[in-house]
């Protein structure tokens, strides 16, 4: 066990007793350090820390059975006779991090609520307060029953379509029932991802299904609004074609808004958590995989991959500066190991944009939708998407492209 002194100085690379950069938050003091495989580090305040030859005195070692117990004021680790860490407990919280040997490939025995979240950087406040806790409860139940994430996604599709049908009726109680169905559907949409992270059942088809579910919900809602307005609005009854044109244009804008919000979120997660913590794709790689599939043998797989590849191509076409940055990163770091200093710097610039990706996602759309239904003017929802959300989309794209240009130039200048 090594002792790292905490201070507000940048000191990288770090060795025992040297200073590390820290960040003070309401939750305490945080620092990022490299931990060796099956090892641990202790972090102590600079003014109370020990370094050099005296550092070992902060850790007690005693025999226990055939193994050893290593302990300091922060953690207690138990190592068996084979050198495997079989217990690793944080004293302050009492949380066990090694209910089984840490250096094997078995899945963890349990997953906490926080472990099912993608990242606090990208989570939206309404999700954290409402949908994620409900989704976690659904995920825990599904895990016990052996239900897969894709099955939950498919169930959410039917719930969302049911909600859209309910919005056709010019009856407030039926509309409220539809709102509850849509909330239920979104709790399932949260649960499928949380269950996937809980059980490690990740798949590209799951990601495609997840995106498809939202598209089907809102396609049904759009059709319901059009049919309703053409039966209840004097203006649209006189011009029945107009609401359909507005719906098509709004649908195209909706697809672009959702796609870009998801893309920027995945790009942020790539630098925050690495390749394994992100679902960032590369269109060229997808095209190669698509070419390997046969329409006769892999019809459905090739069909879904075709849509998904086109989806990624369109994302890349809108983000030329981002693609230039990705190309420069590949040139500078051909082994794929991007320096932590670059990752941290990009995260700082990208983080403020995450609130806009959340506004362009589900929650604020449904607030606008429900408001328009309570006002008995569903067409207002189309107006919200065409004005407010498109303005946010343009601002987000322009600002993100500027950030990417800046970092591309810094890489070309030899920084990082």
Structure commentary:
There is one protein chain. With 416 residues, this protein is of the alpha/beta class. It has 13 helices and 9 strands. It has helices spanning 125-145, 149-166, 172-199, 204-232, 234-238, 240-273, 283-291, 299-318, 320-332, 340-350, 354-359, 362-374, 379-412, and strands at residues 2-6, 19-20, 22-25, 28-31, 41-45, 60-64, 67-71, 75-79, 85-90. The chain has a 4-stranded antiparallel beta sheet, with no helix packed on it. Strands 2-1-5 form a 3-stranded parallel beta sheet, with no helix packed on it. Strands 3-4 form a two-stranded antiparallel ribbon. Helix 6 packs parallel to helix 13 (379-412), helix 9 (320-332) runs parallel beside helix 13 (379-412) and helix 12 packs antiparallel against helix 13. It is globular, with a radius of gyration of 25 Å.
């Amino acid at each position: 066990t090594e002792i790292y002194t905490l201070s507000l100085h940048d000191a990288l690379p770090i060795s025992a007793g040297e200073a590390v950069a820290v960040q003070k938050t309401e939750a305490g003091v945080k620092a990022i350090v490299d931990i060796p495989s099956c090892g641990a580090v202790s972090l102590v305040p600079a003014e109370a820390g020990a370094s050099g030859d005296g550092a070992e005195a902060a850790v007690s070692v005693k025999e226990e059975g055939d193994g050893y117990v290593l302990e300091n004021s922060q953690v207690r680790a138990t190592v068996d006779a084979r050198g495997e860490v079989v217990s690793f407990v944080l004293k302050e919280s009492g949380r066990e991090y090694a209910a089984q040997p840490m250096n094997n490939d078995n899945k963890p025995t349990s997953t906490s609520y926080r472990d099912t979240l993608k990242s606090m950087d990208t989570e939206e406040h309404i999700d954290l307060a409402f949908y994620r806790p409900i989704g976690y409860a659904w995920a825990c139940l599904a895990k016990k029953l052996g239900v897969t994430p894709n099955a939950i996604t498919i169930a959410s599709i039917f719930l969302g379509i049911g909600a859209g049908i309910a919005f056709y009726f010019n009856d407030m109680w039926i509309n409220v029932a539809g709102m509850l169905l849509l909330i239920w559907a979104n709790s399932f949409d949260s649960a499928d991802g949380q269950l996937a992270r809980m059980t490690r059942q990740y798949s590209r088809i799951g990601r495609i299904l997840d995106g498809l579910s939202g598209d089907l919900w809102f396609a049904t809602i759009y059709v319901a609004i059009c049919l309703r307005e053409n039966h209840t609005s004097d203006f649209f009854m006189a011009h029945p074609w107009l609401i359909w044109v507005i719906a098509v244009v709004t649908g195209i804008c909706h697809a672009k808004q959702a796609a870009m919000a998801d893309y920027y979120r995945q790009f942020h997660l790539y630098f925050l958590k690495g390749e394994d913590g992100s679902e960032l794709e590369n269109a060229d790689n997808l095209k190669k995989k698509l070419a390997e599939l046969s329409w006769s043998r892999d019809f459905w797989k090739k069909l879904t991959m075709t849509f998904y590849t086109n989806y990624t191509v369109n994302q890349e076409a809108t983000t030329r500066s981002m693609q230039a940055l990705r190309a420069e990163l590949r040139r500078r770091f051909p082994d794929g190991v991007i320096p932590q200093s670059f990752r941290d710097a990009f995260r700082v610039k990208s983080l403020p944009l995450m609130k806009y990706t959340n506004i362009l996602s589900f929650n604020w759309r449904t607030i606008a939708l429900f408001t328009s239904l309570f006002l008995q003017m569903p067409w207002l929802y189309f107006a919200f998407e065409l004005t407010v959300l498109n303005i946010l989309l343009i601002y987000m794209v322009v600002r993100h492209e500027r950030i990417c240009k800046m970092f591309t130039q810094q890489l070309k200048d030899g920084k990082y």
